[in-house]
User: What shape does this take?
Amino acid sequence: MPDPIVDAIKRLRADVDSQLEREFPRYVEGVWTPAWTGSATAGVFTYTVQTGYYTRVGNVVNIWADVRISAIGTPPVGDMYITGLPFTVDSEVHGSVIIGLMSQLDIDSATYKFWTAFARVSTTRIEIFENPDNGAAAIFPASRFTNTAAVLL
Assistant: This one.
């Protein structure tokens, strides 16, 4: 025979757990492995640094990454991405990314004046864009990717 007191405690515990989840979203810290990837041909790279960290509170994830290479074994082809995000980006909202440093990339500074990045919806990748003063942004092409590229996010 069920014990009404035990059942009441179980229901109360479930209600408290549900309320705690709503009031205090989950907090998770972890590591991830960022990687350079070409969109048509991924490429093969020798990494000198390949480190990523993240903090997740509820549905908000903050990431940090340091991705540096010293050699390209197989050249990438297409557009360059940073892949390996620890979670899939929401299906409706791009994730914003702040670029802390871009170094040793073959930058077309005559045409492009600044660089931006975002995490593409429904993916685990970051796309880096070149932006002119007055015109459309373009994804950074693999053809200008060098064997000593470095990006800090």
User: Anything to note?
Assistant: The chain has a mean pLDDT of 85. The CA atoms of residues 111 and 132 lie 6 Å apart. The chain has one helix and eleven strands. The first strand starts at residue 27 and ends at 32.
